[in-house]
Protein 1
Amino acid sequence: MVKVIAKYSPRLDVLPPYLFARIDALKAEKEVQGLNVIDLGVGDPDQPTPPHIVNSLLSAAHKGVNHRYPASEGMLSYREAVSEWYAKKHIALDPTSEVLALIGSKEGLAHLPLAFIGRGDKVLVPDPAYPVYKIAAILADGKPISMPLTADSGFLPNIDKAAADAKLLFINYPNNPTAAVANDAFFRNVVDFASDNDVIVCHDGAYLELTYDGYRAPSFLSVRGAMDVGIEVNSLSKTYNMTGWRMGFAVGNADVIAGLRKVKSNLDSGAFQAVQEAGITAMAGPQDSVDTLRRLYAERRDVLVDGLNDIGWSVDKPKATFYVWAPIPDGSPSLEFSLKLLDAGVVATPGIGFGDYGEGYIRFALTVPVGMIEEAVRRLAEVV
Ligand SMILES: Cc1ncc(COP(=O)(O)O)c(C=O)c1O
């Protein structure tokens, strides 16, 4: 038999290495050695999907009509539910032209550049950031250009210094990994930049609903002019503990939505309709589970941030997301520091994994119960 040698495309060759693989492997090693590791690394909710949403899936799964190919753009009833949900929270949208179902928001973010980016076109991406923006730009043969997010500017990029000849701009507030939030003034600045320079904006709003202490995060689309320049991508994953279900949506400018819809209609055949029906239940049904979730994460945040500050760290309390973005107290490089934490039995994500400007920070995810967070703080006290 002749062995086929898999030769990867130059596109795959230039993808950055998966830094987290090393941490995952070391974590597994520690567990084999019998150490019970507390994992504050992954941004994956530990709470179950609310039962009324699960029940909705169960009954929808029995319907034969749902067993056939869905439409890539999503059922009209799903898109209507999205538009009603958005109207209640932010702005009115036309479900036929301004809403598109996604198989999780990652899918939409990853496919968007294929609709608008040609070889060498510039794509503005925040640094640090959720890695998908940069990788999607590369996979579309575009050129990612970093916009640094630093503490002195509240982790908002300096839009006035952004490359005006870019084609696409990604932003994300409430932000992963920094947990920073944006105000209307910042969004207005983005809209002005985009309309002056013909840049499409994609705002990633995956954490819009996870806000605390009475704070409510604004939708990018609620700023005047935003509907003319871009879209917002959102997800049921974090709001309803549905990461495994893969259900999200893109909303906003009809031409941008149409471009993404065209790419998707050639690449995927949509989300299982029973999952879309459950998604409708999530958005149209009782929302008390979201309030409960907000209270849960706020309590965990308080325990972690107060605990870290008590042991000599200097950490701000985030108003949103389920992340805590902590400056590394001993100034060591973030990867090295995360390995030290792992030796003490705590997994956290080194800032460098989100980009060069993430160096100097470590990200904790609030996805374990309070008792484990308290134990993690006790372990961290031994490290520094
Ligand atoms: C900022 C951000 N955007 C998008 C996603 C993707 O979410 P999903 O594909 O589950 O909708 C994540 C997941 O962690 C994220 O942190």
Protein 2
Amino acid sequence: MHSDTWVIPKDVYAARIEGRCVCGTVHWSYDAPLTTMTHCHCAMCRKHHGTLFSTMVGGPLSTFHWRGGTENINTWQSSPQARRSFCLVCGSKVPGVEHDSQQVFMPAGALEGELGIRPQMHLFVGSKPDWHLLTDSLPQHVAYPPEWGAHAVENPARNVREGVVGGSCACGRVRFELEGRPLVMMHCHCTRCRHARGSAHATNLAWKLDAIRYTVGEEMLTVFDLPEAQFFGTTFCSHCGGFLPRRSPGRGWVVVPVGSLDSDPEMTALGHQFVASKASWFDITDGVPQFADAAPRKS
Ligand SMILES: [Zn+2]
Ligand SMILES: [Zn+2]
Ligand SMILES: [Zn+2]
């Protein structure tokens, strides 16, 4: 059979996975099978994705293809061993290609299609905030599983001034403080949040608009507004891509990605919203109320 008559078998074709950033410029495809799927609670993942944890899938590089927008990818060296990639327009997390090991690691929340894999374990639970309780039955590792022989990089906690809630981006060039108490905390499973954060879901807090003060590095912020959306957008550090609080004057709020915080917000989530758009591979096990669409607002 000549190679030009070769057709992709239907079962393989059906396993195609597509991924894209939330502004749609960076996109890629991958043909199964994937080999790893992990939730990571390390401080760098939480800050880079702006979430309680990241969810990444990995597999051989051979069936991975960029489909467009690679000129919009920015890369940040988060440790001597690790680089992290994001869309410089919208801040969405995008795949990391490792040529040495011939592996690709993709942000799971940015993917559409049947992944053919489920989360296998929690990494770096030793770094998660004490107030974030894990309620599923997956294996938990303090850092990496011992059989990976991987070197864990320590990221010391950043100090916060007494009496405020503080936060920073992953590289530390941008820092902020929030006065007073948050109004609400919510998990969001909408497609836009998943594609931007690259994780199972976003977790955001809202404070009153005037509660935020950027103390260092405000000039580093990139602010992206999704053109077709009433409110959706992102704010992130142009250097590292870490998601940061976003002013939303239309609502009178500042929307704070939980992963950017360096202190305990002393609040629990009101609910999971937009669970109708939830990633099929993610199970909600925490008993927190679920809303198919937007959570009802107190008026
Ligand atoms: Zn983008
Ligand atoms: Zn991590
Ligand atoms: Zn940064």
